[in-house]
């Protein structure tokens, strides 16, 4: 794709991210004028976006180019990295590493990882992309003493694969808490959405095969692009169900 086409694609994708599924972007003529390009160049980019499932064309007087990005399904039954579940659903997974640092552990991380205020964590903030569109913003923290040199690794893919390959880490289980929150201005800018738009906050503590907590993560998923899925085991009415396997808690309403 030429430089002009790539710039055009980025501008259109930005408008797609700012819109809602089913919203009309405009007609070919309108879009060619808006982006200052020829209709032939526009058609080439739109064809690629349509193949990726980001837009669809409707023919007729009421037709035009419409946003059609679908929802990404995030399973709650398996501990897998974002690239793995995006790829399994046919998306091209991408990552932008926003920041990395080694920093003193703050109280939430201390509690989750079982470390003290004198301990340090490796903090990695990344933006996850599905077919080039932002889908989630993640902030993951790992005990620095357990994973020396982690920031020297290639952090654009699955960190779980890095931990397994270089640190003999095997995921044992993860405990997750899901909340509905609203995007701050900075979060909205990174995710390509409007401030106060709905997000799903998934707070996760991941344990290794020995039961030691090794990751504390806060992941923000776009509410308009994410569906949660879980496979639940049926116990029967008369059976003694383990009520600790899953729970729903109500947040206290602000007065």
From TrEMBL:
GO terms for molecular function: DNA binding; DNA-binding transcription factor activity. GO terms for biological process: negative regulation of DNA-templated transcription. The keyword DNA-binding applies. InterPro entries: Bact_HTH_transcr_reg, Chorismate_lyase_/UTRA_dom_sf, Tscrpt_reg_HTH_GntR, UTRA, WH-like_DNA-bd_sf, WH_DNA-bd_sf. Keywords: DNA-binding, Transcription, Transcription regulation. Pfam families: GntR, UTRA. The lineage of its organism: Bacteria, Bacillati, Actinomycetota, Actinomycetes, Mycobacteriales. Residues 1-70 form the HTH gntR-type domain. This is GntR family transcriptional regulator. The keyword Transcription applies.
């Amino acid at each position: 794709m030429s430089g002009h086409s790539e710039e055009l694609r980025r501008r259109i994708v930005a408008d797609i991210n700012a819109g809602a599924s089913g919203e009309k972007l405009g007609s070919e003529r309108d879009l060619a004028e808006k982006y200052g390009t020829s209709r032939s160049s526009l058609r080439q980019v739109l064809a690629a976006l349509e193949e990726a499932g980001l837009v669809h064309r409707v023919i007729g007087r009421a037709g035009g180019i419409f946003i059609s990005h679908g929802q990404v399904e995030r399973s709650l039954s398996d501990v897998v990295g974002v690239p793995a579940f995006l790829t399994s659903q046919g998306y091209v997974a991408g990552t932008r590493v926003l920041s990395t640092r080694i920093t003193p552990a703050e109280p939430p991380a201390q509690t989750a990882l079982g470390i003290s205020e004198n301990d340090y964590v490796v903090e990695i903030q990344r933006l996850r992309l599905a077919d080039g569109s932002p889908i989630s913003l993640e902030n993951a923290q790992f005990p620095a003493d357990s994973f020396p040199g982690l920031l020297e690794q290639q952090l654009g893919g699955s960190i779980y694969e890095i931990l397994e390959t270089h640190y003999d880490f095997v995921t044992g289980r993860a405990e997750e808490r899901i909340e509905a929150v609203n995007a701050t201005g900075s979060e909205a800018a990174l995710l390509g959405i409007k401030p106060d738009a709905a997000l799903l906050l998934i707070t996760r503590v991941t344990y290794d095969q020995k039961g030691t907590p090794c990751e504390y993560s806060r992941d923000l998923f776009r509410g308009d692009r994410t569906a949660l899925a879980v496979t639940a085991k049926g116990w029967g009415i008369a059976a003694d169900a383990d009520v600790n396997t899953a729970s729903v808690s109500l947040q206290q309403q602000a007065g």
